[in-house]
Amino acid sequence: MTHVRMARDAASRRRPRILVTGGAGFLGSHLCDRLIGRGAQVVCLDNFSTGRRQNIEPLIGHPRFSLLVHDVVDPLPASLDVDEIYNLACPASPPAYAAAPIRTTLTSVLGALNLLALATARNARILQASTSEVYGDPEVSPQPESYRGHVDPTGPRACYDEGKRCAESLFFDHARMLGTRIRIARIFNTYGPRMSIDDGRVTSNLIVQALSGADMTVYGDGTQTRSFCYVDETVEALIRLMAAPGDVEGPVNIGNPDERTINDFAAIVRRMAGSRSRIVYRPLPVHDPRRRCPDIAAAVRLLDWIPNVGLEAGLARTIAHFRTELGRVPAEREA
Ligand code: NAD
Ligand code: UDP
């Protein structure tokens, strides 16, 4: 075998270099773990606004893992040599984006532009973590990808919803105009270990309240619905979407269609946590969507993916995580 051929073969076997923005967050850190486990070289980019170093602590020092502290609002170094980009950088919890709405829009829009520029320059495939929030307060349920949404651009959630919608638009324009290789995942509510205790989303709030004996806060009358997907399954779907061969023409919903009312969800958490907390009702936030349930026919067809971790199994692992976080049991007992 010639040296040239050997070098070419070695190059073709080169480990993929993957950039994960928002890699120190809840979803991003699980994604980094999984990609490292698959043999990739991973660059985790984060500004630690809602992410935490402890999420990626076990990866620090790994020879195929590196951390880049950077804000996606600022342009990225063109020297960043990457084959794939997962763009997850953005606050995802309603209280987190309500606290910094202008920054949230900028993160989605400028972040998308900066990462698309890098992907285009490098001919890297880029996956955008979009959201079911692009459907707003939906008038159809379940929501297929063809549903165009029902978002009020003047409302307090719009910084997130419209920021993500604009990012999708930028992705498709880059694909049409510049040939950028894009993938769009519309992620529905995902839960699991590593959500922050003070994150403000329903799963972390209710579990922490149940474990600490505090009142469990249900907003509104609790008849609104969400469909909860366990984090490992969402991450698996993201990896499959990135790897799917050929052109994936449009966005793909990723979520678990097991739709629950928040009242049901609170009751299950209370029972599984062995809690005697009271369930109390608090005002419904403005524009809180009434229903949310993914139509996942596209994911099933294109990715051969279907979530099968049941809510109780996923909650058992998540409750174990929060028990550890709250210092109630030694870390080695975490599931
Ligand atoms: P998260 O808040 O835990 O993670 C977001 C990460 O992005 C954090 O580490 C944060 O520090 C980082 N970040 C935020 N702004 C940044 C910036 N300007 N520059 C660099 N880093 C920045 O949230 P998550 O639940 O892990 O969500 C990750 C992504 O998935 C988000 O884009 C979110 O919109 C999307 N998503 C999540 C869900 C879900 O249920 N978890 C649902 C739909 C979409
Ligand atoms: N919610 C609740 N109690 C809480 C936090 C949230 O009842 O302590 C409700 C919230 O009003 C919404 C649902 O639970 O109807 C999911 O909220 P979350 O913030 O997790 O995410 P969203 O799907 O609204 O982005």
From TrEMBL:
Its cofactor is NAD(+). Keywords: Decarboxylase, Lyase, NAD. Residues 18-255 form the NAD-dependent epimerase/dehydratase domain. The keyword ATP-binding does not apply. It holds the Pfam family Epimerase. Transmembrane segments: none annotated. InterPro entries: Epimerase_deHydtase (IPR001509), NAD(P)-bd_dom_sf (IPR036291), UXS-like (IPR044516). It comes from the Bacteria. PANTHER family: UDP-GLUCURONIC ACID DECARBOXYLASE 1, UDP-GLUCURONIC ACID DECARBOXYLASE-RELATED. This is NAD-dependent epimerase/dehydratase family protein.
